[in-house]
Amino acid sequence: MTSLLLRNTRPMGAAATDIAILDGRFAAPGAPLPEGTQVIDCAGAILAPGLVEAHTHLDKSLLGLPWYRNEVGPRLIDKIENERAVKVSLGLHPQVQSERQALLSVSRGTTHIRSHVDVDTEHGLAGIEGVAETRARLAGIVDIEIVAFPQSGMMIRPGTAELMDAALSAGADVVGGLDPCGIDRDPKAHLDVVFALAQKHGKPVDIHLHERDALGAFSMELILERTKALGMEGLVTVSHAFCLGMADRAAAAALTEALAEARVHIITTAPASTAVPAVKELAAAGVLTGAGSDGIRDTWGPYGNADMLERAMLVGLRNNLRRDDELALAFDICTRGGAAIMALPGYGLAPGDRADAVLLSGETLAEAIVTRAPRPLVVKGGRVVARAGAALRPAP
Ligand SMILES: [Zn+2]
């Protein structure tokens, strides 16, 4: 039985206490600890459940490779076509790249990752196989959930739906989708395939929806209709959902209400470049919201560092969150929100919960977000996996 005692730590910024971990789970206060229990002095640092990276693309980060000079065109389809074409020449090996990014996440206090992974007729299941291998290699260090993601479209590239089916049979956890109108130009066919795969494999759905304004609202309505018709309430997520940032706030409010009713979740990356879902409105309506980095250092863009505290700051900046209770919402989105969307069992700091946690420097959670100091300690399943901002396992 493994045991660990975190001495002088402040759960969620509350008063300092000692927290014991037994056999990978938080122990009840006063529980007897075995001889030889490892004791760590936390020096008053805040203890929080592990950060949750609820939307990224582990298979295509360029971390560790030479700098990529980005000269890609402005449209979404330019980025998609370019990436598919240069993957091999850049030496983008899905297993190696995903392990590099996942370990960077671990160093920053992330204990759970949902990664969309490309499935297309050019590279087949290479991405899925690579990320699945990383998931196995990093078992006990970080949990990775795989979304089979038709990045290049499904209806416009015959054969992709069959590969999506194979990816789900091969261990993908979630059915992905992408801009049913904007990329596939056939929303009914695209969504029928996505939801049929979800039904066949008994898996949840997470759809990238970049479509803005009325077009995005139309796609979202189609997603809501199918969610309700198939009894999939609570099992469907829309990532990005830029349409919720539309200027017509009455229409956005009606959509938000419909999302709450169908228990469809939202994952935001809070980009600075476009209108985004308003997280306070989503919270007020009861829509579960998570957050993610999206692509990190890839052919789409040079940004990203896998730090979900920084994402909390970006959610705050994008939504004009200033008050401490508002920053608490941003932190909640980057932890509990993503965890609830991914239905992670035993997530939290209560006795019996899984000991997946991070120490944060700062007087309060809000200060931790603002300063984003290196994480003193990251614990996964009761074992230390990172210290002083560095993962214990070296990256490949
Ligand atoms: Zn994405």
Helix and strand layout, with pairings?
Layout: E1 3-11, E2 17-22, E3 25-26, E4 38-41, E5 46-49, E6 51-56, H1 76-86, H2 94-107, E7 110-118, H3 126-137, E8 143-149, H4 160-169, E9 174-178, H5 187-201, E10 205-209, H6 213-229, E11 236-240, H7 249-262, E12 264-268, H8 279-285, E13 289-291, H9 308-318, H10 324-341, E14 357-360, H11 365-371, E15 377-380, E16 383-387, E17 390-391
Parallel strand pairs: 1-4, 1-5, 6-7, 7-8, 8-9, 9-10, 10-11, 11-12, 12-13
Antiparallel strand pairs: 1-2, 2-3, 5-14, 14-15, 15-16, 16-17
Helix pairs in contact: 2-3, 4-5, 5-6, 6-7, 9-10
Describe the 3D structure.
With 396 residues, the protein is α/β, with parallel strands linked by helices. The chain is 34% helix and 21% strand. The chain has 11 helices and 17 strands. Strands 1, 2, 3, 4, 5, 14, 15, 16 and 17 form a 9-stranded mixed β-sheet that branches. An 8-stranded parallel β-sheet has the order 6-7-8-9-10-11-12-13. Helix 9 (308-318) packs across helix 10. The chain starts with a strand and ends in a 5-residue tail after the last strand. The protein binds zinc ion. Residues 55, 57, 116, 208, 294 line the site of zinc ion.
Please give a handful of descriptors for the protein shown:
single chain; 396 residues; 8-stranded parallel β-sheet; 21% strand; binds zinc ion
